[in-house]
Amino acid sequence: MGSAKKQGNSAARRARAEEMRRAEQARERRNRIVAIVASVVVVGGMVGGGWAIIASASGDDDPQSSPTSTAKPKVQVTGEKTWGGLARDHVKDSVDYPMKPPVGGKHDARWQNCDAIVYDKPLRNENAVHGLEHGAVWITYNDKAADADVKALSSKVEKTPYTYMSPYPDQPGPIMLTAWGHQLTVENSKDKRIQQFLDTYVQGEQTPEPGAACTGGKPTP
């Protein structure tokens, strides 16, 4: 009897030990899984953070977004029209632009001087567009614009760096303001949106080449 009892107790201990061993193995497996998951999360965070740092440091060459210290927050000017995906190739020939005045696209390698200059003759589109690429705002007018409005806008342009002004006889509106990818039509010089457009787009965040010169280009039409 004593021997049988001992054998029974021994079997029970072995069963208990086996149960505990299995429980320990299961616990170790859970711990390994947790450790692996944690490692993946940490590495993923490091990789993601690394990409974030690289992206922040490298910037973005998209012409609609130019991350520079001079970039201004984008504000949609009421009534403006916008275009994206504009080409920036340099060409020697004339370009058939789909809008008048053009808001961007292929252009001459030589930019129109665009630093607070008022022209009394129409500009060549291909040179004028290059001025837009440098972050300037081009103000144009046709014969529907009042003389007083032309005079008032001329005075404003002469005091505002990175702006230029010229007649544009076949444009659809009396007075139009154009930046790279953006255009606004107004009826007169008293429209408050004119200053808002200038504040937003003169060397604004839409500028493909922020800080590029508006002098040293083509001086006359």
| CATH topology heading of the largest domain | Glutaredoxin
**How much helical structure, as a percent, in the residues?**
25-40%
How much of the sequence is in beta strands? 5-15%
Structural class: alpha/beta
Kindly report the oligomeric state of this protein: single chain
Q: Which architecture name of the largest domain does CATH use? A: 3-Layer(aba) Sandwich
Query: What is the count of helical runs?
Result: 4
Count of individual domains: 2
Got a strand count? 6
Main beta-sheet strand count, sense and barrel state: 6 strands, mixed
Distance between the termini: 121 Å
Average pLDDT for all residues: 80
Q: Please report the first level of CATH classification, the CATH class of the largest domain.
A: Alpha Beta
- Give the overall shape, derived from the CA principal axes: globular
The helix-strand sequence is HEEHEHEEEH
C-alpha-based Rg, rounded: 34 Å
Strand order of the largest sheet: 1-6-5-3-4-2
Low-confidence blocks of residues:
2-10, 40-73
Key phrases:
221 residues, alpha/beta, six-stranded mixed beta sheet, 6 strands, disordered N terminus, DUF3105, transmembrane helix, DUF3105 domain-containing protein
Write the layout of secondary structure elements.
Layout (H helix, E strand, L loop, with lengths): L1 H57 L22 E2 L34 E2 L6 H9 L3 E5 L5 H12 L4 E5 L7 E5 L2 E5 L6 H9 L20
Parallel strand pairs: 2-4, 3-4
Antiparallel strand pairs: 1-6, 3-5, 5-6
Description:
By secondary structure, the chain is of the alpha/beta class. The protein has two domains: 1-58; 81-201, Glutaredoxin, CATH 3.40.30. Helix content is 39%, strand content 11%. It contains four helices and six strands, in the order H-E-E-H-E-H-E-E-E-H. It has a six-stranded mixed β-sheet. Helix 3 links the parallel strand 3 and strand 4 (163-167). The longest helix is centred in the first third of the chain and has 57 residues, at 2-58. Residues 2-10 and 40-73 have low confidence and may be disordered. Residues 1-10 have a biased composition (Polar residues). Residues 15-27 have a biased composition (Basic and acidic residues). The chain crosses the membrane at residues 33-54. It holds the Pfam family DUF3105. Residues 1-27, 58-80 are annotated as: Disordered.
